[in-house]
Design a protein that fits this description.
The radius of gyration is 14 Å and the shape is globular. The chain is mainly beta. It has a four-stranded mixed beta sheet with strand order 3-2-9-10, with no helix packed on it. The longest helix is centred in the middle third of the chain and has 6 residues.
Length: 116
């Protein structure tokens, strides 16, 4: 059985990013179907797998990291326009295994990778 996990690290501050809302959608053609939603904890992780073993299925997905409020809380000028507000990451899970899709975040850039 497979599962999907994620976490967010604030690379500008060098800490886990707590309090970021994350939504997971299954993508079929041009349609998006919300599968799960979670919020990062003090360790920058969700309290459990965002897509656990019992709900896992192969396919195309999109994680949307709602980073705007977090960046406002930690920005020296929260009234200034944000460069990043919502960060979508689309990926395909093509085998029954553990997929880990983390987000490395700063106010002006981000990166991701398939972790373990």
């Amino acid at each position: 059985m497979g599962k999907l996990t994620t976490h967010v690290l604030d690379t500008a501050r060098g800490v886990p990013a707590e309090g970021i809302r994350i939504a997971l959608y299954e993508v079929r053609g041009n349609a998006h179907f919300k599968v799960a939603e979670a919020v990062t904890n003090h360790d920058g992780r969700t309290d459990s797998a965002i897509l656990p073993d019992g709900k896992f299925k192969q396919g195309e997905y999109e994680l949307i990291f709602h980073t705007g409020e977090y960046l406002d809380r930690h920005n020296e000028r929260p009234d200034a326009p944000k460069f990043l507000n919502d960060i979508p990451i689309r990926f395909t899970m093509s085998e029954d295994s553990h997929f880990h899709v983390p987000l490395l975040l700063s106010p002006y850039g981000y990166s991701t990778y398939r972790g373990s």
